[in-house]
Amino acid sequence: MEKDVLIKVSNLDLHYGDNHVLKDIHLEIVRNNVTALIGPSGCGKSSFLRCINRMNDFIRGAKVTGEIIIEDMNIYSRSTDVISLRRDVGMVFQKPNPFPMSIYDNVAYGPRLHGMKNRTKLDEIVENSIKGAALWDEVKDKLNSSGLGLSGGQQQRLCIARAIATNPDVVLMDEPTSALDPLATAKIEELIRQLKEDYTVVIVTHNMQQAARISDYTAFFLLGDLVEYGQTSKIFTSPKDKRTEDYITGRFG
Amino acid sequence: MNDINPRAHLERSIEDIKRKLIKLGKMSGESLSKSVHALKSQDGELAGSVIKMDDSIDSLRYEIENDCLHFIARFQPLGEDLRAVSSCMYMASDLERLGDYGNSISKTAIELSDEEYIKPLIDIPRMFDIVEAMLEKSLEAFEKDSKDLAIEVFALDDQVDDLETQILRELVFLMIEKTSRIEQGSKLFLVARNLERAGDHVTNIAERVLYILTGEYVSASKYRRPEKKGRSEGF
Fold it and tell me: Which candidate from B2, B6, B73 shows the least CB-CB separation from A236?
């Protein structure tokens, strides 16, 4: 079956000053799937993730060449509106980082930023997004309380609700469970499985088992190279490259 | 989307494997059933269709094995999940073997399709009926997590063994009477042996179901009559 590619990366190079962080990356990310990026620290996986919504623009000395095409649009072309790019490509970070405001305002933040003023519509978006992040039953009676009062796992689900409130095509996640306990982690993992019904998820994880459990495709990075990319079930049972085999069997990394 | 079941993905994956295993069981049962029917009705064409089925049985078996490996790699299962997935690999191999017996019986059916039988085929279909009942019970035990159904399978294997002994005895007498019957007699005996072995593989499946459910290796012999001394007793 032909793969339905949403993000097409070609000839991507990233430099931080003299440091060549990503080297000639070619990768096609499939729509409505979970793609995991794995590799040892410093391999370039998080830098690659940040390229997908141009978060590296904030880093002094960062230089990107090559193409990332999302829905026929090269996000590195001059005409790209970075604000609207980040509406379409949401992001969830390692540590839950709710804004110091109410649960409602956290989720409404993105839509308001993009000009949404209609209260009924906002209520609807907030409710649907919190439901989409499987948090509704836990917070529906305290939407006006501070997001900071929630537990770590709930805060992270609130951040997911905030990320999907702008109805993005892609949700990027950078080690979203590394600060959470095992049960909260298991819940987020199942939530990610559910999110792929509506979104394309790209996740960086240090936890190889997590990548194995939740992703459909896995990309293995090493020293800035994309060593191997393919279906997760294949990568974790019969990888083609010796370096991937050595990494997943714990021989290095 | 509000209830998060952290096991949902794992459970879906193992259900998929279980469904495929039951499908494999049904295909193998069909292969045996058609082969015995082809032998009885001397229908070479039907026997040929069984032989053609064998490749799809083999490939489903490997698909299940692959799924189980992927499951282990992805979920690092423990407890009942681990018992289930490791047992599914063994069960897939047992079920595929039933298909092989169907294949072998079909080849005999083709070889004997133009010959007059040295005896009416009554006990071989009876043997198959019992193996079929055992297979249905063991698959149902697996599907419904039923210890009782699994245990019921064991005693039926005694009946299969008895019929095999009876068939062999009968064939030996027929062959002693006329040496020209030896070729067909030995082929029919191999059919009975194939069905007896099929019964053993189905018994393995019921044992595996009990292992999944209880974590204990339960031997079928615990539920069967005491073993006679020497299989060929009575000849």
Answer: B73
Between chains, do A233 and B2 touch, taking CB under 8 Å as contact? no
Q: Which fold does the domain B8-223 belong to in CATH?
A: Methane Monooxygenase Hydroxylase; Chain G, domain 1 (1.20.58)
pLDDT band for B1, please (50, 70, 90 cuts).
very low
Q: What is the pLDDT, as a whole number, of residue B226?
A: 79
Give the residue numbers in B contacting A (CB under 8 Å), as ranges. Answer: 1-10, 66, 69-70, 73-76
d(CA B156, CA B45): 31
What global pTM score does this model have? 0.82
Domain ranges of chain A: 5-248
Q: Which among A190, A205, A236, A248 is the top mutation candidate for probing chain B, defined by the most B β-carbons within 10 Å of its own β-carbon?
A: A190
Q: What is the pLDDT of residues A218-249, one digit of tens each?
A: 999 999 999 999 999 999 999 999 999 999 98
- Backbone dihedral region for residue A61 (phi beyond 0: left; psi -120 to 50: alpha; all else: beta): left
- Three-class HEC string of B77-142: CCHHHHHHHHHHHHHHHHHHHHHHHHHHHHHHHHHCCCCCCCCCCCHHHHHHHHHHHHHHHHHHHH
As a whole number of angstroms, the distance between CA A79 and CA A101 comes to 34
pLDDT digits (tens, 9 = 90+) for B60-98: 999 999 999 999 999 999 999 999 999 999 999 999 999
Can you give the residue ranges of every domain in chain B?
Answer: 8-223
Domain A5-248 matching CATH 3.30.420.40: the answer reads: no
What does the block give as tokens for B40? 């009885």
Three-state DSSP class for residue A223? coil
How many CB atoms lie under 10 A from the CB of residue A2? Answer: 4
Give the max Cα distance, chain B: 77
pLDDT at position B6 is: 84
User: What is the pLDDT, as a whole number, of residue A251?
Assistant: 83
How far apart CA A221 and CA B49 sit, in angstroms, is: 50
